[in-house]
User: Fold these one by one.
Assistant:
Number 1:
Amino acid sequence: MAGAMKPEPIPAVGAPATGVWQALTRLAGAVQDPALEVRRIASRMAETDDDGAPEPLAGVEYSAYEQLFTSDRLNELYKDGVMPPVRGRWSYPTITSTYAQNSHELLVWTPPGYETSGISYPTLYLLHGAGSPSAFGVDEWLGYALTEDLDRLIDSGFIEPMIVVLPFGAQGYWVNHADGGPQWSDYITDEVVPFVDREFRTDKRRERRAIGGLSMGGHGALQMAFRRPDLFAVAGAHSPTIRPYEESPTFFGNMKHFATYDPLTLASSSPGAMKVATWIDLGNEDKFRAPTVRLRELLSARGAELHFYVFEGEHEGWYWMGYLPEYLRFYSRALHADAFTRDGAPIIAADSILLTANAQPLR
């Protein structure tokens, strides 16, 4: 990317965090329009409570940023912002929803060659986070260079073509509200998925449908996949924001309603958690790390098909942007799995997912 400065290395674990400036430095080296993205993320972070950098996770190994195939590494392969000659395309259909109680626009990305290939593609649904009162929605994933990463990773052979769907979920935690408000979970499972399968050339098998999300969206992806394994065989939670009942929004209702959508409750007892290949990642200094580690313990105790990673970083925008190529690699591998557990969860060899920093294009 012309004129962009290479991001400075992350401070060593335990060093004082540089907060928003560290995030802005990372973002400036990884997006097509750094100034615009810096302003957007800075505004969001300014409205987020900062309780200080938490202590790093004790006794848990983590992968350093420089060790992995991050967005920085992908940008180095496509110098000066060069993009592949053939690229995917966004569509913007609108759904008038009963469950979401309004009309909402979907963003649907079809891969290069979709118009003429005649192929049915696997589908990845990506849920956004809560953001801030003035900044949330589907544009979050776009701000983390999702479009550029998809085009480049397909062009380089690191991932296979897929359809990607970005739905809108306000700040509703992607759950059915107990107060008569929007039914965000049913909106996705009972309206969005059938709509996309009807309007686009998707592979409709559950094994070829994944759902993932960041922060609030990670919570949503887990509960939807665990509750509806008939629809989703793959789930990804990137820094999931999992709160106890006492700290949850009022629309979670009473304890019974809360438990219906609580990833920890579902991980400990739901049959669906065993039918899904689950990816969970968090930064070694993520402020929501304790419940995420508990989630790992619950799924591991049951022998679920789990891929759990701790990466260097915090609960901040640069983290999701930086590791997005690794996320997309997981989804691609899982959506093309040819082996399954007896419960129906795709099996992916752990050493075939993460890419090292020196990975080279496969084509």
Number 2:
Amino acid sequence: MIDELPMTEELFREDATLLECEATVLAVDEAGVVLDRTVFYPLGGGQAGDAGGLELPDGRRLAVVDTRKHKERPGVIVHVMAPGFDASSLAPGTRLKACIDADRRRAHMRFHTATHLLCALVPHPVDGCSITAGYARLDFHMTEPLDKDTLSAGIASLVAGAHPVRHRWISEEELDANPGLVRSMSVQPPRGLGRVRVLEIEGVDLQPCGGTHVANTAHVGAVVVTKIEKKSAQTRRVVLGFAE
């Protein structure tokens, strides 16, 4: 029963560099596979879900095409399987290895960290966000124009500064006492767990974030602003891409 499933142990919250882990199957159905623990990040906070595979003891590898939060059970993560997956072919209790697509994860980490650098350069509330392996974008609530070259140069400077990137946990009470930490208008930090994860880029940015990031801004690499759009009278969209 879904109500009996425990929350998935989210290994990626503490170490985004983990690419695989041993896990036990808890449930299997047409929606996907639920494990007791995982390195797969589920779609959320603007960041796309991870893809990869589940390696079985008999040598089979089952493709995971996406990762989502369970629609009915908070804290449970569903590994969405490739079309044609036979739910009866995988039994609860099976031990396996969960392996993410390393290139996809690294792209997410680089882009997500880059969006924090962009937030430091554009001091306005964010009312939209999307982070994928191919691009990232932020929508800023503002009216003044932005310049691509200026922002690209600013990001390059922060990358070259090699600022350490780390996360820590604060209480919900601490967050309530510092409402200015929340930059996003559209996505609020999750409540009810008693604590909130915040990301700190030393000397650059500090805000709640549950996503995956690199450990130092130097690892972001060459990221540039590819497009700036006026989405509405009060919204400016900035799109990021890899320069190399």
Number 3:
Amino acid sequence: MTLLALETSCDETSAAIVREGRVLANVVSSQIKLHTEYGGVVPELAAREHLKNLLPVARAALSDAGILPRELEAVAATQGPGLGIALLIGLKAAQSFAFALNKPFIGINHHEAHLYSPWIVGQPAVADFAAFQPNLSLIVSGGHTMLVLVESELNHRVLGGTIDDAAGECFDKTGKLLGLPYPAGPVIDRLAETGNPKAYAFPRPLLHEANDDFSFSGLKTSVRYFVRDNPTLVDDPQKLRDLCASAQAAIVEVLVTKAIRAAERAGVRCVTASGGVSCNRALRKELARACEKRGFTLRVAEPSLCTDNAAMIGILAERKWLHGVAPTPLDAEIRPGWQLAEVPQSP
């Protein structure tokens, strides 16, 4: 199968060409600079950028892969979850491609695609499903934080998720309180590298609860009050780095502890991590340390596949096709609130 995949769930316009488990091309047009001015993603602006960039990005992917449109055998796109007005651009474009080519269309759940991104490795990227094993997956991004037990290919069970702010949202809001630019997660990561993670004590929400849920709004509020009561700290470069390191340590400890605990409870020996926040170096380091201590295998998505991208959409669409999952109707609508727990399991 040669497949075109599109991803427009938020502020990245991406197109990929996938053939027999290989990513022949994966082109991403980011809108970060556009939204930095506003301190977050503006849906209307995101949609305009998708409209402007989608066809050039798709053409670039086809060109990079050396594929002609008539050679495509299927088309896939993110159907949800995400920003409705952004999803609409990619979904309708993909359905139009499929209709014009008289080829099947496959709608993909963005979160489900993240589950399989750690198995896409190398350059050029190849889906390494021969090494697949039951795993505890941590999906951690700006809008979502969840733990998922993946028992076999296309069979998963959501164990828990965020009940308020996601980890990435906590990073960004903490950064805003500290006067850092959007997106603040990568900035905090860099500053924290030379900071003292034990300088300031911030709460670890739900760390000792027996469930698999997350809550980061209290941590964000704690930082807000701390900065209010100690306003001069952010003007001191070293103390700012210490603040970043301390807040980051709190987030990372919660993520790692709950992920490892869930893996032990589920009886699996493999942990995976994906989503934009999985690029965080402290999170990768602590996950690796915790997994090595327990003899677990760790698979973390490659940095280029942590953020939104069409490669993971295309790889999952191809796997679904190979497993006999029926195509998605060409008149299917976007599903902005599509929960991972609602995704049908493999036949």
